[in-house]
DNA sequence: TATTTACCTACTATGTCAATAGGTAAATGA
DNA sequence: TCATTTACCTATTGACATAGTAGGTAAATA
């Protein structure tokens, strides 16, 4: 399951994409609009900053802004930044120990096919696809 | 992520499908072949029995057997029996409280599309697709 | 009737999730 | 210059899920 971190990260990104790209948006504002605890969002935006997906500026008049145009963000990279990995099963995670049953495993092809399905899906979805289309 | 329960359940079903359908297969045997703790497997086969996917018979000469032909099992129903639900996000679980943000949520369509993708995938995969094709 | 098998309830250690608490550092506007 | 606003940092917590274990009882058979 996609955790709150991943889902909230997506909402933060969508929120930022809906604001004037030249005005830094304070986290307080995002938290209020999205009805999410500001304290908790701090953890999430920290990851987004470290991943280079957004930029933060301190002090009065500071806040966050996107570093690219919304079309340039894939949903997958946003989710993976928070979830660590979208791998369906433990043995397909990047840091997984090599499985001793690999050669004989009858389920591995299933998980590999599923893994590709999921990753391709979230790669194909762009941040811009999630923006409000009304007016 | 798919947990060990779901993955082990699938391996139990595959194991049973590879055995003589008229001979009840003792759990001890499955545990040894699959290299999984018999004690832990007890929990899993209990669910499979309750779900009607396999049948158990007690006593000497007892064991487990499939209740249908391998083509008649969808991978989804096996996994859902152990995982509870394959829902991608909390708000799409069957027992989820109605989300107050539903009408305005910009991510809901994404999760719905993803949910359908996953469920359709595991519906389309049959137990028979996972059996060893060699010889 | 001893043995083998399924089936049952309870317990536990570990880790992850979803936050909260309580700060420091940086930038700005008055 | 200095109070205010903002980002940024480390640590802690309660609740829950995961991945098992422990120690039995009931049923069937050879």
Describe the structure.
Two copies of one chain form a homodimer. Chain A is mainly alpha-helical. The first copy, chain A, has a domain at 4-85 and 126-130: Orthogonal Bundle (Arc Repressor Mutant, subunit A), CATH 1.10.10.10. The first copy, chain A, is built from five helices and two strands; from the N terminus they run H-H-H-E-E-H-H. A two-stranded antiparallel ribbon of chain A has the order 1-2. In chain A, helix 1 crosses helix 3 and helix 1 crosses helix 4 (75-83). The longest helix of chain A has 17 residues, at 108-124. The first copy, chain A, is elongated and about 60 Å long. At the A-B interface, helix 1 and helix 5 of A face helix 1 and helix 5 of B. Chain A binds a DNA duplex (30 and 30 nucleotides) through helix 3.
Identify low-pLDDT runs of chain A. none
Q: Which CATH class of the domain at 4-85 and 126-130 in chain A? A: Mainly Alpha
CATH topology of the domain at 4-85 and 126-130 in chain A: Arc Repressor Mutant, subunit A
Number of strands of chain A: 2
Which sheet architecture does the biggest sheet of chain A show?
2 strands, antiparallel
| Largest protein-protein interface | A-B, 27 and 27 residues
As a percent range, the share of helical residues of chain A equals 40-55%
Strand order in the sheet with the most strands of chain A: 1-2
Oligomer: homodimer
Annotated CATH architecture of the domain at 4-85 and 126-130 in chain A:
Orthogonal Bundle
Give helix and strand order of chain A, one letter per element, not per position. Answer: HHHEEHH
């Amino acid at each position: 399951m996609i955790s709150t971190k991943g889902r909230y990260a997506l909402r933060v990104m969508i929120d930022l994409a809906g604001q004037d790209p030249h005005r830094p948006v304070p986290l307080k504002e995002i938290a209020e609009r999205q009805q999410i605890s500001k304290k908790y969002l701090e953890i999430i935006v920290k990851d987004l900053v470290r991943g280079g997906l957004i930029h933060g500026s301190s002090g009065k008049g500071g806040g966050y802004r996107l570093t690219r145009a919304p079309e340039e963000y894939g949903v997958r990279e946003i989710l993976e930044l928070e979830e660590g990995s979208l791998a369906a099963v433990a043995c397909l995670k990047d840091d997984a120990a090599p499985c001793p049953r690999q050669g004989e495993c009858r389920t591995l092809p299933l998980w590999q096919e599923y893994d590709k399905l999921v990753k391709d899906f979230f790669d194909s979805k762009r941040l811009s696809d999630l923006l409000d289309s009304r007016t």
